[in-house]
Amino acid sequence: MTKILFVCHGNICRSPMAESVMTHLLQRADRRDILVDSAATSTEELGNPVHPGTRRVLAAHGVPLVPHRARQMTWQDGETYSYLIGMDSANLRNMARILGHSEKLHSLLDWSPHPRDIADPWYTGDFEATFRDVWEGCETLLDIL
In angstroms, rounded to a whole number, what is the distance separating the alpha carbons of residues 4 and 111? Predict the structure, then answer.
């Protein structure tokens, strides 16, 4: 069983968006061999629900939101998950700090034709652009799994 943990700063915007998109794509592809979850590198949003902007953009694209409350990534996640996928380079630095260096750390868009960070819509306000990047990353990742 392949296990994927999507990680962003607060676990209320990008990582639960990726968790929901990947869950949706896995269900469409009838792939039951992959489990997904999400987490934060910070403690700022612990226990909070998904950001309203993320809920709106997922609904607009017909992607069901997975049940979610923000949680922080732990050292044990490094043992549990096959892939630990950050949304940007700052997330990856913080993930490495939590886990120690790991070959399991990746950026979501590492496998895309144009690797790049996924902008945080908390700051940009552009949840649609973030959704497009997350969708691209999840589709590309699913193609290699």
Answer: 15
